[in-house]
Amino acid sequence: METDESLLRFPCEFPIKAMGRAEDDFDALVVALIRQFSPDLMEGAVRTRASKEGRYVSVTVTIQAQSREQLDNIYLALTAEKRVLMAL
Question: Could you give the domains of the chain?
Fold first, then answer.
């Protein structure tokens, strides 16, 4: 286990949400970006939800986070992608 001042205790389940325009492959893009740093995604780890008018979509991927560095790398990859409008 890591011993930093984080409230998280690793390993832990951690949901990562990315939002973008509703395009056919947006969920696949988000999963591919996250899978670079968390290759062992489990069945049912991905959920999508369309906005009220259907123009935007949010993709939530729950991973088994191993470290703060892993999470930082995932967020850096997501925010560097121009199709990802927001990552939480």
Answer: 12-87 (3.30.70.260)
